[in-house]
Amino acid sequence: MDANAVLDIAMQGLLVTAKLAAPIVITALVVGFAISLLQSITQIQEVTLSFVPKAAAVAVALLICGHWMISEMITFTNVLFEKIPSLLGGG
């Protein structure tokens, strides 16, 4: 196994990680911004007002995207397992 193969696997891993994290991070960002905007308009500065809706939105995003996330991880893992013989020089 050479350095290019290691870098290729690392790059694929980072891309899969970014794809899997994107729905959760974007959901938290959008809900957090909306709640922050609402708090600044109404001047209500309550910590739980920003945390609870964000946690609920992330939970809903996980419920919606969870199946897709798991299938992406399984596909990535299967591709890595299929590459093992060629990485070891046997195929």
UniProtKB/TrEMBL annotation:
GO CC term (a single one): bacterial-type flagellum basal body
InterPro entries linked: Bac_export_3, FliQ
Domain of life: Bacteria
Subcellular location: Cell membrane; Bacterial flagellum basal body
Keywords: Bacterial flagellum, Cell membrane, Cell projection, Cilium, Flagellum, Membrane, Transmembrane, Transmembrane helix
Stated role: Role in flagellar biosynthesis.
PANTHER family per record: FLAGELLAR BIOSYNTHETIC PROTEIN FLIQ (PTHR34040:SF2)
Name assigned to this protein: Flagellar biosynthetic protein FliQ
Organism: Leifsonia poae
Lineage: Bacteria, Bacillati, Actinomycetota, Actinomycetes, Micrococcales
Name of the gene encoding the protein in the UniProt record: fliQ
